[in-house]
Amino acid sequence: MGRVVWWLYEQECSVFRFVNLRCHSRFLTSFFGWVTHVGGARATILSTLLLCLFLPSPSSLWAIQSAIALTISHLPVHLIKKYYPRHRPYLSIPETKMLVLPLKDHSFPSGHTTAVFSVLTPFMLHVPSLFIPLLTLASLVGLSRIYLGHHYPSDVLVGALLGSGSGVLVSILFG
């Protein structure tokens, strides 16, 4: 690895260790254990389908945009995980606190973060009053992935970019 890449990796590990090892509390463990599921497949798919079915127009169009963004955002996630495999932090950083069972796929990028940002971005764009609460929720999902020991900060950052990028693109194309 080049010196700059190694330095970046060390900085990222420092951030990871701070969130995963130093910020633990009973409340945060419970909170992040719950909030991480907001970005999971069951929650994002089910909530998006329910919003598509039950929201009145024009909100139903935004829900459809969310569903399309969710679908297309996972193609790059799958390809990146396949062609650029990165071990999860708990495999590389022995002192990692693991609060749930280890995952078997690769770390980069975060699928939970990609999913939640792809679903929420169309609503953030169309309903400006929801921007801060929805961005906060999506960011907490990303932070939960680090806290729970499943992802490095860059996994979460790239997931947020992929998810929000797909949400913006779909909102523009189908707006």
UniProtKB/TrEMBL annotation:
Transmembrane stretches, start-end: 31-56, 62-80, 156-174
Give the coiled coil ranges: none
Source organism, top-level taxon: Bacteria
Protein's cellular compartments: Cell membrane
SMART domains, per this entry? Answer: acidPPc (SM00014)
GO cellular component terms, alphabetically, are: plasma membrane
**Keyword annotations of the record:** Cell membrane, Hydrolase, Membrane, Transmembrane, Transmembrane helix
Q: Which Pfam families match?
A: PAP2 (PF01569)
Please report the record's description of how this protein sits within the membrane.
Multi-pass membrane protein
Q: Which CDD domains match?
A: PAP2_like
Query: Residue limits of the Phosphatidic acid phosphatase type 2/haloperoxidase domain?
Result: 64-171
UniProt GO molecular function: hydrolase activity
Q: What is its main location?
A: membrane
Please state what the protein is called.
Phosphatidic acid phosphatase type 2/haloperoxidase domain-containing protein
Q: Which organism is it from?
A: Guptibacillus hwajinpoensis
